[in-house]
Amino acid sequence: MHHVKSFFIAAYMAFLLLGLVWGVSLLLEFRLLWLGASVLATSMLQMAFFLRLFISPSARTGKLTLWLMASIALVLPAIWMMLGAHDLWGLAALVLLGVALPMLYVHWYSRFPKRDRSFLRVDQTLPALVLTNERGESIDTRTLTTTRAMWLFYRGNWCPLCMAQIREVAANYQALAQRGVAIYLVSPQPPEHTAELAKKFDVPMQFFIDQDNVAACALGILAEKGLPWGLQALGYDRDVPMPTVFITEAGGHVIYADLTDNYRLRPEPQDILAELDRWDGRRDPVSGML
C-alpha cells in the first residue's frame, strides 16, 4: 500500500495532463463539444488547486469539500450522456478523472493511518534522540530541552505545505520567543537542502537533520515510502516524517502535540500560542510550578 501511495500523485498528475489534452483535442476538432468542455473544465480545476499550492502556498487547505463537489458536478452531465451512448471506455475515463482520482486524493492519499500517540502525549517525556546540525555535528536532544521548545518535523523542501508552515512559524517567531520558546525544525532531507532552506530565514530557528529517520521512527511519526515517486532523484529519502508539531518544557516534558492525520491540515499559529498561554495560566504565580 505504501508503494501505491508513492506512485499515486505522479499518476494523478499524468492523468490530469492527459485530460487537458483530451479536452482540448475534442474542442479543436469540434467533436463532442459537451464532453470536451467537461473534461477540460474538471482537469483545469484540479490542476489549479495543485498549482496554487506552489504559487500561493498555504500551510493548510481545509477539507476541500467544495473543490471535490465542483469537480464531480462538472463531469456529471457528461457521465450521464456517456451512459446513454453506451461508451464504456469514455465513461470509465470520465469517472476516473472527475470523480475517482480527486476522491482518492482527498479521502485516501492525503490521510495517514491511525497514528501512534504513545510517544508524544502531554506530560510524556521526550526520549533521548540524536540529530545532526547543518555542520554535520551530532546533537543529543537532551541538550536542546534545557528550555521550552517547539519541534516541527517536516517532510522536506519539496513539500509546499511544509514550507508554508515553516514561513508561518518564522512570521510568529517574536510571539513564540516572548513565551520562551526555542524553535527546532527537523527533516531527514540531505544537509545541503536543509542549509539552502535555513538561508531563507533571518530569525534564529535551528534546523536539524534526522539521519535515516531514526528520531521519527522512535517517536512513532514515520510515514514509510511517503515520498512521491521520482523525488528520490533529488536526493530525498523515500521515508518521511508525518508532519508533526509538539512543544516541550525545560526537561523535555511534552505540553502540546499536534499529530494531524491529514498532511493538508496543520495547526494554526494562533491556536499554538493560545495553548501556550493556557498552559502558562496554570502555573502558580509565586513558585512558577503547575
Key descriptive features of the protein:
single chain, 290 residues, alpha+beta, Glutaredoxin, 2 domains, 7-stranded mixed β-sheet, two-stranded antiparallel sheet, 9 strands, elongated, disordered C terminus
Describe it for me?
With 290 residues, the protein is α+β, with helices and mostly antiparallel strands. The chain has two domains: 2-109, no CATH class; 130-281, 3-Layer(aba) Sandwich (Glutaredoxin). 47% of the residues lie in helices and 12% in strands. It contains nine helices and nine strands. Strands 2-1-5-4-3-8-9 form a seven-stranded mixed beta sheet. It has a two-stranded antiparallel ribbon with strand order 6-7. A hairpin with a 4-residue loop joins strand 1 and strand 2 (138-140). Helix 1 (2-28) packs across helix 4 (88-109), helix 2 (33-55) packs parallel to helix 4 (88-109) and helix 3 runs antiparallel to helix 4 (88-109). The chain is elongated, with a radius of gyration of 23 Å. Mean pLDDT is 89; it is low at 284-290.
